[in-house]
Amino acid sequence: MADAPKCAKCSKTTGEGGIALKRCAKCKSVLYCSRACQTADWKVHKKKCGLAAGTVEPVVLTTPEGTHNFNSGTPVVPKGLDSTLPKPFTHLHHKTWLHNRSEKDVFRLLIDSFRLMLDDDYKFENHTPENSLYSGSSPDSRIPFRSFLQQAQRKSGLLPPWWTAADGTTKLDECVAFGLTDEFSNLKCAVDKGGIIDYYGQSNMPMQLRILREQITGRGPMGQSGAAMITMHMAMESGQGPQYMSTLDLSNNV
Hints:
With about 250 residues, the protein is mainly alpha-helical. It has helices spanning about 35-50, 90-95, 105-125, 140-155, 170-180, 195-200, 205-215, 225-235, and strands at about 20-25, 30, 60-65, 65-70, 75. It is elongated and about 65 Å long.
């Protein structure tokens, strides 16, 4: 009888403890029971992974740095944004994620970080800010969004340098106005994780927006910290961790 498939790191088998083994997304030849096991095994597996993947058909995959073609390695500009940002989680770590972007992109990302925060807090904590769509007392969420932007302005260096002019005026009013007219990033409409992924075309964009929310408000969804995710993805961006984690997202769909 053939041996049962097992995790390449901890040797757990399918069904043991209710686990479901998943293949490395690049070479499709090695099984893991969790993201933690794949991360721990990467230093060993990466030496063989590229060779094993040599005959795999061309695949376009979303990675932490954008959407790439395995053959060309060429980054594709995320949908909905004017340009891409190399190593986004490294920028999040340094709190420069909103820097070196166009004005409209900064407005979009601030608005969508806020909109996702409203949806997260409503779904997971039954929290509905006054004067927002979720409270039913307003046709849009501009009032709590202004407070969100004011919090961001108090975080030194988080917003790009051009946000505040020499005379002390800021882009706050322009950002709010943009959020009342933009087709997608609109304060008159709710959005959830799935909507963010569909619009931007990046599976980890909700994570990036949630980390920005935490940096602005001091609190992540349900009080959870994004520090561990930043560390893991920074390692991936620097080539020190697994580069192909898309099939090993074992978290629930929130």
